[in-house]
Structures are given as structure tokens and as C-alpha cells.
Amino acid sequence: MKFAVKKGWSNGRARSGVLQLGSCPFPIQTPALLLTTRKGLPPFISPDLLTSSLPSPDSHLLQFSPLHFLEGISPKTISNIGGLHQMLSLHQHIFAAVPRDSIIALPEHDSTNKYGASFQTPGCRLLIKPAEYVELVSSMEPDFWVTLADEVPAWVSNKRNRTSVDRTLRWLDDCLSLNKESTTIFGSIVGGSSIEERHRCAQEVAQRNVSGYWIGGFGLGESMDEQAALLTAVTDDLPEDMPRHVSGLGLPEEVLQGVAAGIDLFDSTYVYHLTLGGFALTFPLERNKGENADYQLSDLGGDDMKINLKATVYRKDTSPIVESCNCFTCQNHTKAYLNHLFNVHEMLAQTLLEIHNTHHYLGFFCSIRKAIEEGKFEQFRRNFVESRRDRLFAAASSA
Amino acid sequence: MELCICTFFLSNQVLGRFNRARAAQLTLPHYLCQTPLFMPVGTQGTIKGLTKNQLEEIGCQIILGNTYHLALRPTSELIDELGGLHKFMNWPRALLTDSGGFQMVSLLHLADITEKGVTFQSPVDGKPMLLTPEESIQIQNRIGADIIMALDDVVRTTITGPRIEEAMYRTLRWIDRSIAAHKRPNEQNLFGIVQGGLDPVLRDICVRGLVERNLPGYAIGGLAGGEDKDSFWRVVAQCTAALPEDKPRYVMGVGYPLDIVVCSALGADMYDCVYPTRTARFGTALVPEGVLKLKHQAMANDIRPIDPMCECMVCKNYTRAYIHCLVTKDAMGSQLLSYHNLYYMMKLSRDLHSSIVEGRFPEFVCKFLQTMFPKGDVPEWVCNAMEVAGIDISSCCHEMKV
What we know:
The complex is a heterodimer.
Chain A: E1 2-5, E2 17-20, E3 28-30, E4 32-36, H1 47-53, E5 61-64, H2 75-81, H3 84-88, E6 94-97, E7 106-107, E8 117-120, E9 125-128, H4 130-140, E10 144-146, H5 158-178, E11 185-189, H6 195-206, E12 212-215, H7 224-235, E13 244-247, H8 252-260, E14 265-267, H9 270-277, E15 279-281, E16 306-308, H10 328-332, H11 335-343, H12 347-373, H13 377-398
Parallel strand pairs in A: 4-5, 4-14, 5-6, 6-10, 10-11, 11-12, 12-13, 13-14
Antiparallel strand pairs in A: 1-2, 2-3, 7-8, 8-9, 15-16
Chain B: H1 10-13, E1 16-18, E2 21-27, E3 32-35, E4 37-40, H2 52-58, E5 62-65, H3 67-72, H4 76-81, H5 85-89, E6 94-97, H6 101-107, E7 112-113, E8 118-121, E9 128-131, H7 133-143, E10 147-149, H8 162-181, E11 189-194, H9 200-212, E12 217-220, H10 229-242, E13 249-251, H11 257-265, E14 270-273, H12 275-281, E15 284-287, E16 290-293, H13 313-317, H14 320-326, H15 331-357, H16 361-372, H17 380-389
Parallel strand pairs in B: 4-14, 5-6, 6-10, 10-11, 11-12, 12-13, 13-14
Antiparallel strand pairs in B: 1-2, 2-3, 7-8, 8-9, 15-16
Pfam family, one (chain A): TGT
Keywords (chain A): Cytoplasm, Metal-binding, tRNA processing, Zinc
Subcellular location (chain A): Cytoplasm
């Protein structure tokens, strides 16, 4: 794996970088979004559509949880097939293994003990020990993998939080020593909502021989306000030239905060949950790109960022989700059709919407990168937050 | 009365024959089709999880939409207002809608058939409603499909007695009402449906009655409902023998690949069935040997593709083991299986068409049967049907080997 931060970027910690990993022939520009998958494929976008309908190479970063595979296919069979890339027939995609996944494998901090991390899956509760985890990962041969962590939410006791850091460090060392094939490993950093513990963990992990850092413990119910300080506490102690990956920062504002703190890679279930709910992202990707004409206060749950395609107001709307969007869905289908598909519970609704939402969100990351490279990230971030406020205000006063 | 200019130039465009089997070019307003062909069922204006591009890639030519479901949601008026179903779905090829009658009778608890039409309780608010032949045609006119079906009085073949005769004559009376109500004969082709149960006399009367009306095409209805296979093929054979050569013959609700091959040998051209997509959702794949149940534990370690000979995206890229771990747990599993199963059906359609055109239909049929019945245990009804179709399948049948 090769990662380099591009010199000469803007003020603050935000950085633009380039990531090159074995499988993918194209370099990936960061900050970048990893797409959420279930067993390696997006929840609703079939593999042929993944390659044909989403931008390349932006859409080549895929996050998955090895634990998904425990029900239904053995590590040995995955090995026999030839690993994840072969099994999914996505040879030019980058697979990142992260044990926790907010849909299928939720960390169960109460059940985690000194032997292993506990996860709640739809089928059962699993206790995964470092050795088992490493075995699972090695059969899959992902491009990089994150060490087993004891993630805890923000409200646990200080004692529990400290234990989670101790355990995570111990498991990190276990994973490193079990790593026979010298694959690419990202060291896990936890610490909950304690700045001290975050520092402690980050400093320790920074001393290990890893290729990058995964920052856990976010997207587990903490407030957005706490996030910034905790993230910078971590990135303060990490070497500049190594990639930083965080899971669980989903909302655009959270992503912007993460970028401002020096994070390079993001994965979250934001797009997945939006899609399930029938919400389509519509926020303008560039400032002054025109008003978001579809925003209507009466739109059930929609706001200036997104619309609710299930709302009856779209029943006869023959316009695409976003006029200027060139994703497959906007180029081929109307809000009226999507409204119908959602109302009759047809799977195609989610396929089409996941394509649009993913496309839109990748576009957001593209705008972020552009802003950093032009030295205007802070301004971009401010504008984004402020124009949201303006749109909300305008809509509220015209209502 | 001038009925329609959907032309099925069998005499000009017939591309091949083998005894009763035909391969032809069916020219519809939205697409040039090749028959025999299978039509996937896109009940509510979509085929389970597949995009229009994927459907085109697979080779779908005509998709069936269910009038009953579409009239409920989003309503035929809305579809009409937005420019018709083709535009609504953005489907550039052909569409066919059924009359709505069958769903009503099979889905609704209190559906009752009278001379006026089908009376039923609205599933939305329980109010009594009536679907007449006129109303069915009006709804279908609004939806705008290339082929529309006349409301028929459909009776299950497992029923016996005077009801069948009543239904057959009513179907004939209703076809006249449908023809009169049809407002778009230049854009939409009205097919009549032959009823009459398993009674050859009734079937004959119905065929003659419909043929007198000189419709653009004819469907053979009332089958695929639990009758024994021996009766099934005989009805198809009788009807295809009596229906005009130059018009398409559509066997409704068929079906299994084996049934399609037999009916094609007997002279039918078009088929529809929910089977391929429905069985995909239960984890079953269609293969030349029959079916493959991906849910079975045996699949968990099987690293072969579903069908090594299949060229579809799923078979070229995925193993049975991977699909096994998806089915019934992740929506992606049924998406991939639907894709494969539809590909299989469209490939079957293409193979039927090309083997007839290229003069190797009997060889195709034999190979098909040998693969499906490697022990030579071809069912008797198939042997009987093939005899009538004039196709020598002795090489496939164990008992018939001398």
C-alpha cells in the first residue's frame, strides 16, 4: 500500500492525499468514502451496476465486516475460491475489513470480555477472539484490515473506557503477531469520549508497526459536538504521512468535521439508512449552484438536504431526483416512478435510490477534495453549514 | 370493423418451421420481437429488482404488467397522465397487459362473476366494485401496452359441469364488448382468449368464435391451473391446430421450461409466468438439468457456478457457495438469482427461435430432453405431445428404445 499526503494544502489539518492499493489500478484520492456492503456487495446495487453506474475509481473502495460471512460460508471455502476479490469478482476494487458494521454486526460492549469482542448479529451474539478474527481475515485477503477493537459508546464509565483501550491495544499486538503474511493492517484506536484516553491510545498505537489507523468508537450515540475535540486529540498524536480511517461519521457535517480533523477515509451507514427510508440526497454539491427548488417544508421528513420520495407530493412529478445529476437513476427515471416503486414495496426502488444516493455522496467527497486542493476547505465548510441555515430560514419564512 | 394494424406477417416474415413449430418475427409498435418468446411478469411496473438496462441485456422483449395491480397503484389515470406505462417505467421495448380478471378472481376473497363483469370488494376500502369488459379495456387503453387482453370468464380447469360452458359463451359475448370499447386499435393490439375448460367441443366453439372476429392475436387461457399435464397439452394442441397461421398464439401462465418447449413444438409462440422470478426469491435457480436449490447445505462449499454453460453475469462471476450465503438473508441473493433465471428463460426463447430457423429444432428438443432426463425417463405426456408434434424423441426415451 502506498499513501502520500499532497503538499501545499490549505490551512488547518484537512489534507488531500493519494492512496494506492494492490487491487485497484487507479490511485484513490482522499478524503474518500468507503461504500458499505453486506457480504462484500452493496445492499441493493448488483455488481454489474456497481461497475457500470457509479463513478470510477471513487466507487472502488468497499468496506465490509468479516463477521457477515460467518453465517453461511466457511473461511476455508472462501480460501478455496481464492479470497474476496475472486469470490465477488471485483478484482479492481479495494476491500477494507472492519469488524464492526452498524447494520449487521453491532458491538456489544457489555458482553465483550478479556477474551474477545462481542457483536450482535441478526442471527446470534458472537464472541470473536483475535486469533479467530485473524484467521477469518486471512482467508478473505482484503486489501487492508482493521485490528479487533473493544468499542464502547460515549456513556460508559471511565473504568470501562480505560479497559477498552487496554484491551484494544492488547488485541492489536495479538493481531500483529498473528499476521504471518504481512498484510496491510490499520491499528485501531478507541478511547470513548475521554480526551485523555484518546491521547493515550493514539500514542500507543502510533508506536506500533502498522500501515494506517482506524479510529473507532464513533457513530455509537455520541453527540456531534464532542466529536471534533476527540478526533483532533487522536490525530494530534499520529504521524502525518499515514492514512486515518474513521467509521460511523455519516452526516455531511460530521464528515466535514472529520476532514477538518485530518481524517482521510470514511465509512458509515448514512447512505444505507437514507435509502431504506426512501430519502434521496438533494443538497447542492457546490455553493451557488442554484436553489434547491424541490425543498418543501411539507415534505414528510425531507429537508434542504434530502427529499422523502414516498411523499404523495411526488406522485406525478416527472422530474429526476436532481436535475443536474448524471447518475443512472436521474438519467433514466422520475420521482413519480420512484414514488410508485416505494409505495408498492418493490426492490427496484432501493436499487435505484442507493445508486443515486451513493453517486451524490461521492460527489460531495469530490467537492471536498476540490476545496482542499484550492486551499478553500475552511470556507467550503463554513459555506456548507451556513447555506443550510439560510435555506432552512428561507423555507420557514415562506411557509 | 378495422381492428388493428399490429401486423404479424407470418407469411412474409416466417423465418422457419418444423411441422407445427414456428419461428417468426412479431412486429409490435414498440419492438420487433422474435418468437417463440417468454415474457417476464413485471407485476407492478417493474421486475423484481432488475433495472431496464439489465432487462435489455438479458434479452427481454415483451414485459407483462398486471392491470389489476397497476389500476390500484398508481392507477391507470395517473399512468395515462404521465404518458403511458412505457414512459412511466422508461421501458423502450414492448409491453403487454392482462385484463385484470384473473388476479381478481384469484386474489380477492369475494369475487363474483356475472354477465355484467367481475364484481368484487375493493381491497382499498371494501366498497363493492365492478370490473366490466369495457372498464378493463379502458384501463388498458390508459396504460398503453402494445398488446392488451380482453376480459374473459376464466374458470379453473379442475372445475367440471355447466359452469365451463357458461364461461366459454360469456367470453365470446365479452369479446364483442371489448372490441367495441377499444379506443386505440391502431396502437394497441387486442388479443382474445380461448376458454372452454378441457372440453374439446367447447374449445372448438370458442376458437371459431374468436377467429370470426379477426383479432390481431389469440391466447389460450384457462390452463396452468392444476390440470393434469396430459389434458393440458391436448388443449394446447387442439387450439394451435385451429387458430390462424398468421397470428401469434399466446399460452397464458406457462411456465416451466419443459412446458414451453412442448407448447412451442405444438405451434405456440408466446408465454408468460411468474415462476422464474418467484422461484428465485426462494433460492431456486433454473438450470438445464432442472432446478438447483441454492439454500441446500450442499451448496455451502460448492465453488462451481450455478450453470457452467450459462453466459450470464451471475454464472460468469459467482459461485454456488457465495449465492448460498446470500439467499434468504440478503436481497442481493434474490436479485442475482432473478437475473440468472430470466437470462435462462430468454436464452431458451432465443434457442427455440434459432433452432427452428436453422433447421435443427428436433435436435434441440432431443438435447433439451436428454439433459433434463438423463436416465431417459421422459414423462409420458411429453412423449405423446411430441408424437403429435411430429418430433422424434426416441433417442431420449428409455422405453422407446428398441
